[in-house]
Amino acid sequence: SSDWAEVIANALPRAQPVTLVNVGANKGYKAAEFLRLWSQFNVSALSWRNSVRGFARERKFKFLLAFACGNCNDCRAQPPARHGRTGAHLHLLELLQTTRDLLHTLVSEMGLQSAVEVHNMAASDKTGTMRIKKFFAGDERATAVCRSKCTDEVNVTTLDDFFRIHDLRDVYQVTIDTEGHDAQVLEGMGGILSQREVYLLEFEVQPKVGLDLRRVLTRLASFGYECFWQYPKDLVPASRDCWRDEYQHSLRWSNMVCAHAAEALKVLYDLSHAGYERRQTEPPMQVAAHAKRKG
Questions:
Q1: What is the pTM of this model?
Q2: Distance of alpha carbon 120 from alpha carbon 164, whole angstroms
């Protein structure tokens, strides 16, 4: 699991339900990780991959079979330490029909129906429908933004509307992975963020889409959220006084995690400081190699 997520789970007990809203669920590895961290379901990353491969073989989906592990080797994720936590409830939003079929199959095969709901929709800054191009099942490049060959129609929702329709309050985590269009999803959840209905917020930075990250972070800060870059071994603060304008000109692909609650922020800042202290004791070549991996 993500180190920061496990540290927070260990340090800060949570009343049930412990809800994840996963926008852009794709093959479901984030769902599997969350279930390992917040339930007693036996959902290893390897068993998830094996089920993805089985589905791909049955449907003769060669692309999915080739990339069953996930673009970031998600199937090799290590499990958290043994724990007694329960209460996970997940809402998975996925725009591709074939990928939703995969998710429904995995949920059914593993007996997760009581904990996982799969939704036929994408998320953005407006609610309605939009046309998208065709992608392979499980294709992590799939996006709701389409400029040509837009043949398929998909439902789209703001997260403000999604939370209202599903009566979601005090949600533990929202994770967004929409291939560079996370800012639009964030625009569509201003209501719930202003009410601090989301405990932890995770989103992706992709510089190629012209993201104004300073604007995004300033808006989140206005709602009380402070954000950190996620790196393999570290968290690096990015909000408020930690922002530097040169960051905007050197953006690389990365993930960010944000929180508003003092106890969660303390854990995240402690992890960040521990990483900083460790880097001061590393040999220069090791620090340079670590910095290179960050990109």
A1: 0.91
A2: 17
